[in-house]
Specification:
The structure is a homodimer of 199-residue chains.
Chain A (H helix, E strand, L loop, with lengths): L19 H26 L2 E7 L5 E6 L2 H11 L9 H10 L2 H26 L17 H29 L6 E5 L17
Antiparallel strand pairs in A: 1-2
Chain A binds a DNA duplex (17 and 17 nucleotides) through helix 1.
Chain lengths: 199, 199
DNA sequence: CAATCTATCTTTAGACT
DNA sequence: AAGTCTAAAGATAGATT
């Protein structure tokens, strides 16, 4: 007897699913679905794909081919030019704002340099230290202090960025949404063969 | 009789598509498909989803709801514990190897904290200083210093990196790409729709 | 090439276990 | 709560414009 056992897939509105349970199920199912799609794209086209998902509760899920760190590091370190015809402009904006962490890192490095200098000066006056701070083990740091520091760095970062923009806007009078300052092309690990350069 | 106009969707093997043109088309189509899925997951479940795709040529594409930076920063900064039942083991393994940049960032924060402490101690002995460098407004940095920043950072970066190799397993291979953002505020985090297409 | 077409393949909503 | 089932919804391969 050909009685329908189920109604089959039903159409649903494209809006937040009201029912908690249904939403959870859908979250799980569709997340898996995206992973599968990502893996297929990777296989079929030889691309590297990373998917990051955060549940409303803030729990993190990720999928990466070859690995999610590789993917994110690629974005953060290498920052290749966007090439998506559909999302080109958006990409340009995003990608260069994406540098925030990297910039912070740079900021920190430079501030460390300054600190080092100043400490050197201080040490001349108080020559009873044996090791530089950079040689000390990191060890014991209170969460609170770290957080405070992070906030300060963030503020400083904004100042520097603003100043940097003045500087580099003057230096390179470009109308582009960004300006690349120092590309150091010598060590670019992503010089690709012309064969695959198309996309 | 109604003649078939197309053969419809054909099944394809799940392996790298040999034909270059087909592969390109598939890359584009399926990438869009994943973006759509991601956006739907976000809408239906209130999740934040980020997708990063790198073509074999290393060109980057990304999609993010609310924004790809937010997503990646979340991973890099917060590094929440894995909670994916499907990929649990893989995730656990991956996340245990902390993100390299994040590690460096943390390292630097730590070292700065140490530096701060030590400078505080030093200052007690040499109480003719008024403020710590981290308290100085950044605008007091000279133009010259800002211009020299790249070089300094690179040198220090190498130094830190060398020491990092001792502490951590792996060294970063990339030199620092000094890209600078202009302060595009970009209030609209939603991706696909927000922009006039440039071409 | 981007866009459309459409037959067919693939995903998944809902129900049950 | 993870797995199964089913049929409808949705994605897309291949062709065309």
């Amino acid at each position: 007897m050909e009685k329908k056992q189920t109604k089959g897939r039903q159409k649903i509105e494209m809006k937040r699913i009201p029912n908690e349970e249904d939403r959870l199920i859908t979250f799980s199912k569709r997340r898996s679905g995206i992973y599968k799609k990502a893996s297929e794209l990777s296989t079929l086209c030889g691309a590297e794909v990373g998917v990051l998902v955060f549940s409303p509760a803030g729990k993190a899920f990720s999928f990466g081919q070859p690995s999610i760190e590789k993917i994110t590091n690629k974005v953060l370190y290498e920052n290749p030019p966007p090439n998506d015809n559909t999302l080109n402009l958006v990409e340009a904006h995003r990608r260069f704002r994406l540098n925030e962490l990297h910039q912070k890192y740079s900021e920190l490095l430079s501030k460390m340099e300054v600190a080092k200098e100043q400490e050197k000066i201080l040490r001349k006056k108080v020559p009873n230290r044996s090791k530089g701070w950079w040689e000390e083990p990191i060890s014991e740091l209170s969460m609170h202090e770290l957080e405070q520091m992070a906030i300060k760095i963030q503020m400083l970062h904004k100042h520097v960025q603003h100043r940097a923009n003045e500087l580099w806007t003057r230096a390179s009078s470009s109308s582009l949404p960004f300006s690349v300052v120092n590309q150091t092309p010598s060590t670019n690990p992503f010089s690709m063969t012309e064969v695959e350069q198309k996309y």
